[in-house]
Amino acid sequence: MKRSARRHSRLLHACAALGAVLAAGNASHAIAAEPANYSAAVADRLQTVRKGIAHGPFRPDWDNLRRGYRTPDWFRDAKFGIFIHWGVYSVPAFANEWYSRNMYVPGNPAYQHHLAIYGPQAQFGYKDFIPRFTAAKFDPAAWIRLFQEAGARYVVPVAEHCDGFAMYSSDLTGWDAADMGPRRDTTGEIARAARAAGMHFGLSSHRAEHWWWYYMGRTFDSDVKDPRFAGIYGPAAPMGLPADRPESWPDGEQLQGWLPPDRAFLDDWMARTAELVDKYRPELIYFDWWTAAPSFEPLMRETAAFYYNRSAGWGRPGIIAYKGSQFAEGSALFDMERGKTDALKLTPWQSDTSISVKSWGYAANDSYRTPQSLVADLIDIVSKNGNLLLNVGPKADGTIPSEIEAVLHGMGGWLKVNGEAIYSTRPFHFFGEGPTRSGQVRVGGQVEESAVKGYTPADIRFTTKGDSLYALGLSRPRDGVVLIKTLYAGTPYLSAPIRQVDLLGGGQISWEQTATGLRVTLPPAGDGAYPYALKIRLR
Question: Where is the signal peptide (predicted)?
């Protein structure tokens, strides 16, 4: 019994030692050494920005930027792009891509889930998901093929989300996908695959929110407090005033009420942005909402001047997409997140939304939009002079969920038949007709996507190309009969009577231009029918 107990004790010690070795291995993998020359690297990048601003037609003032900026034709012709939210947050795959923040908010469902599945945040923090983010099946060429089959013409991966883990090869941090997790420059690989296939490439930065992202982790015992992990958890600064409750959320529409970041963080943000510009030469850069905070205003002007000058030097204009008030109107591309406009805009714009309903990144048990509804949204957006940037959330291993693939294939099938009514089109005199409006309008004309409950057969949208007018029905009438009231005989919106009407994709139709509108009888359609497109030519 004693020998058996001693053997058992030795076995336990051996197992404990092995566990310690394995734990140390995991810990070393999850502690990134910041570059020894970090300060010099930031200073070099900032000097590069200053030189870039000094050499080129764009200057960091709004009048100059407004005069010089023009949305390039390639973007106006493309109409449809793919957004990619992929990162460490796809490992827990719980609720949404804000898991990295919410797991440190006591009482939040993600906090409770984390405790139940992974244990206390002091022992297993967000950084500990990084070794599990393997991207073992990541095939950027296959991704691009899928996106092109869907009909997309440009791709925009998130190069860094608010979690602080850079999805690219950075000289400014070791907490990046090239040095940890996948150990691959995932952004660079997507860029190369896209360009090899003739697809336009952009990228997105959500770095600004990192200033306060992990603050709640400082309010209890968690690894956010450990200075060894400052490279991933960042300043973790409070959002609100000292008298505010730590968990209180300042008004997202009034960013002057948020505590501003310090100079070091702003310099780091600018250096990382310049690094992305020079390493990947994106044709479009999307900045998330917190860059609308007042402290970022000078940086927005400088970033625009630097990037636009760089793009001019590359022989092509660049696009900055923004969704707040951080850019003067006309100096960049306005974007509406999960929203649309209720009217035709004279200048190009973009709407970004996601195939998944609950999360931008991959989350288990998410629900998904239908391809029919997304095609209808695409038509509505294009008719109002906009583009659709549609998000996908790949899994941690680099595979794209089958539900998302099915949606993309459905959209691609429709665009193969009806794409001429979408690509390279321009708006008609007005966007369309019909009873359905996009819902509750927010400040700036943006409409919440969730307010749109569905379209009726009377909802028609218009686009034009050359001598052709396209009328696109957002919902197929069950009896096959549609009346397009705008196109009545003698309408002032047409220069001549209608000569011919064709249904794209074929199919027998009959039509008549009457005193009350263009009456068209379509082939019968069953449940789940997609929108349809009519090509109209004049005498």
Answer: 1-32
Query: Which residue is listed with tokens 């057969």?
Result: 457
Whether the per-residue pLDDT at 114 is higher than 70: the answer is yes
Give Dmax (Cα) for the chain.
106
Over residues 303-331, mean pLDDT: 97
Lowest-confidence pick of 13-27, 40-54, 469-483, 496-510: 13-27
Which of helix, strand or coil describes residue 354? strand
How far apart are the C-alpha atoms of 485 and 513, rounded to whole Å?
10
pTM score = 0.93
3-state secondary structure of 135: coil
- Taken in order 488, 489, 494, 498, the sign of the CA dihedral is positive
Dig out the tokens for 341 from the structure.
Answer: 């406009």
Q: What is the pLDDT of residue 263?
A: 98
Q: 130-159: per-residue pLDDT in tens?
A: 999 999 999 999 999 999 999 999 999 999
- Whether the CB-CB separation of 472 and 532 falls below 8 Å is answered with yes
Rg (CA), the chain: 26
Q: Residue 396 carries which side chain, given as an amino acid letter?
A: A
Phi/psi class of residue 113: alpha, beta or left (left: φ > 0; alpha: ψ in -120 to 50)? alpha
Range list of H helices, 118-257:
140-149, 186-196, 230-233
Q: Which two tokens stand for residue 293?
A: 């905070």
- The residues facing 461 across adjacent strands are 432, 472
Categorize the per-residue pLDDT at 16 as very low, low, confident or very high, splitting at 50, 70 and 90.
very low
Rounded to whole angstroms, how far apart are CA atoms 312 and 307?
9
CA distance 431 to 445: 15
The pair of structure tokens assigned to 48 is 């590069």
